[in-house]
Request: fold
Amino acid sequence: MMSGRNMKWAERILGLLINPDWLEELLGDLEEYHFELEEQPKWKRSLLFWYHVINCIRPSLLKPVSGHKKLNRIGMLKFNTKLALRTLRRHPALTSASIITLVLGALSFQFISSWISNELSMNKMHHHLTQLYITGVKTNPEADLTSISLQTMFHVNYEEMPEVIAAAQVHVYQKDEIKLIAKNHEFKGKAFIADSTFWEMFDFEVLAGSDQSALTNPTSVVIFESMAKRMFDEENPIGQAVELKCDQQGQYVVTTVLKDMPSNTSMDFDFIVPRHSQRFWRRIPQEIVLTKPELNIEEFNSKIKKPGRTNNDRFPESELYLIPFQDCYANAAMNTSIISKVSNKKHLNTLIFIAITIWLIALLGFNNLQSTLQIAQSKNLGIRHIIGGSKWTLSGEVFWSRFYLLLIALVISFTIYQSIFPIITQFFQMDVDRNPSLEVISIFGFLFSIILISALLGTWLVYQLKSFAALNPMARNFKTPIQQRALTTFQYIISIVLIIASLIVYKQLQYMLHKDLGIEHTNVISIDFFELSPNWKREETEKNYQYIQNSLAGNPSVSAFGQGNLPISTMTNETSWKVAAESNEYTTQNMMVADPSYLKLLGLELLQGRFFSDSLDEPNQQKVVINEAALKYWQIENINNTKLTSNTSGRKVFDFQIIGVVKDYHYEHLAQKIRPLILRYRTYKDDPFLVRFNEGSETAGISSLENLNNEINPSGTFEYEWLETRIADQYKKEQQLRKIYFSFTIIALLLSSLCLFTYAFYETHRRTKEIGIRKVMGATTMEIFTLMSKTFLKSILVAYFIALPISWYFHHIWIEQFANRAHIGWWIYAGAGILITISALIATSYQTILVAKNNPVNSLRYE
Amino acid sequence: MEKEHIGELEELILLIILMLKDDAYGLAVKHAIEEETDRKVTIGAIHGTVNRLETKGLLKSEMGEASEVRGGRRKRLFTLTSSGMNALQKSKDVKVSLWQKIPELAIQKL
Reply:
């Protein structure tokens, strides 16, 4: 018969699922129906038939569970749901504490893990990522890598190299160095001036306009979505004429709009300009190389390493390298402006450590709460066991009630996560995108792992349960269950370690922010009146320079001014120096630019010789001022008969006269001890100005400078930077770390207290009668209170002494990275102990006082 | 009381079973419903409802004879119990009395 195969399968499937009482007539009907469909085409026949078969699988027709006549799985589900919800409702304190634990845990975990996964997925969107390299040069074997184009500097010809698919030269212009002018409005943005091959290397998503001709057309400019929105608002940006202004000028047309790059890319810029659109760009050319996938980079690097004297006679000792693009991000292999953020392994490890800690704390807390619940229910369980509930069904209940907690916690945490996402990411300065589907999975994973472990533990407890013992009041009334104690202790160990850690981070940060740097850092700003301007504007620059000099000198709010780098500089020039006429080796040292006003402006202290002066020195002479550290480093005894030599300017080697020595001051992050520093008088007229205001006249000073800036750059924006801000910015990472530690310490403490609170709640309830009896025997309220508090404080004392050596160990590892360390006294450890005791007392005292004050008549009424 | 209340499909099936008399089994009920009311029902829906009605005590059933089109399987033949008849009657009474309470004019105005 035709119906053979369909029918056989239907019989098999339904046989598994359907109640055998009804199977026969159901299958009979189906077969008859199938027979009736004979006229229909074959596909339609099967379709209709299976539609009906599947429709037969419904709750009321399902097989019953074994041992019952009518109750099937769906019915069991209903029962279990009812039972689980009833248990949850009967213990509102425990239920809400459990849910809060799960939700807080899940939220903290999710924020951290989204951060971590963002870091780990960095740049992975670019398909050629593993084939991308940035070129780097060491001007001598000792020097740091510099990102620079090998084609321009060393005449490297990539066309001769079969391993290289393409190379693109890139000039990077920072936000304040370049602007686009559209409809008489100026828009600043970071720009890449790139060869057309740049296009092949990265996966950019084109939103509108052409992609093939994008960078080959010399008048086209490619902009990113958000920049386009800023410039043209709702208008169609394609085809709009824009004027480019930096050290070059030109007319361009917007041909392409790109989708903004996600947060997990380490490049960040606003528009791309074709490099061949102008003959010359003043920024250093850098270079990105796309190689064949099978390239062995070590072999390749050893091949190109030595360019020799023929290709570049200025830097004969140079070594050339291709540095993997991803390494520049992940390991900060080379400093390059192509990449705008760098990962920090230590930071990432801290995050992972905290994620694990949070998981552990939530796990412990949840287990603690759930086993409290189980103990509260032990009598109930015992009775049910005696009247015939199998251990299998009893542990099934454990799973069910946990399952509902999981669902509730999942929904709550996901909703909260979505709503607080913007606040939290801003607070922690996290650069993370939203990804709801992944978030659900990851929150679920977190909750599921905790719940599974706790369910297994719960089952184990059920199997341990001796029904007789559960019913025996004597057996369970006089002993605190051991696992609760252990879990509480463990939780508090983690909390104490975290408290001490965040106190230490806090101390160290305060220390660094308030340490005397050796300079007067208040009331100083750096301001740039000159935008990068084309070379032909020299005269104008000269005129403006004189005007600024005069008006600053006549300004009553200004106490001193000059030109040069802010003393806390992110861009110290690393150059090679040695003592002249001695056989010592060149080493890389920091160099900064200063002018004669620098000493007074920053309140530096002169130790030997003299500082630069307007009457004796001119810019660009071979004279330097060094700091004390440099004096010690080269063991210079007399600065008058010692000279320094630098080979950084290439083959020509100059001897520099040391005219003075300044007292050490902190010009770098305080993690460093003060390193040798060389100051040179090498300012240009269009360098930024440093201005010190008189005490109290900062606002007047700023507004007069704004007026001055408007006179000189009528169309430009007024921007300046406080030295104090620059100093604080150095410690951003530490500040972020402090925030993270602080927040998670609070969460850990909260979760621990929550557990202790519920633990105390049930413990006091359990011992109501005992306390009643004690009171009848003559115990005072105070005695009862001490007795109860002792129970809880004992585990915390144990936790404290276990936590001490652990935090001591972490303390020393962390603080070691700082050359300038805050003094961490014993009181931090003592303080943590006091803090934890107080929080524990707060968590338990309400219950204990209540039970201690209780009139024994109430508790013993039924005896 | 609760158990005697019947839903729309239940009422329909009870009526059809009455109508079909001796040959009231699942598939026949399905066909009859489709013919009389122009609505599609699945075999599973019929069986589900019939089971429910049997649990409520409105129907009783016995196994009929086997036939070849059914692959040698027997049909289950349904007949109404007296409480089934009562439920139908009650349902009809409710509707009739409701209709009578509505004046003809009110209907025409709709």
